[in-house]
Amino acid sequence: MSLTETQIEQINLAGIYNALNIWGYIRLFADKLSDMNKSQSEALNIYWVELSALNDYRQFYDVLQKLNIPSKPFTDDLESALEPIFATLFS
What we know:
Blueprint: H1 5-13, E1 20-22, E2 25-30, H2 35-43, E3 47-50, H3 59-66, H4 78-89
Parallel strand pairs: 2-3
Antiparallel strand pairs: 1-2
């Protein structure tokens, strides 16, 4: 699937971040998407992940499944899992 220049401009004007064409798919990550952005993205077969609520990261697993990318759901405590990651990154 490829987007027209007009569609790309509409996405840019909507304030959507990281719209990237990769492996023939569009992936979309944003802190907040309007209901209109979500429905338009779904109509264009654009997979999206919204990151405004605590458990929204779980949508990422759903997208991986739709793309047939091997993965397993994260079921641990997110804050506990992130602490050692951040400690390593920021040391």
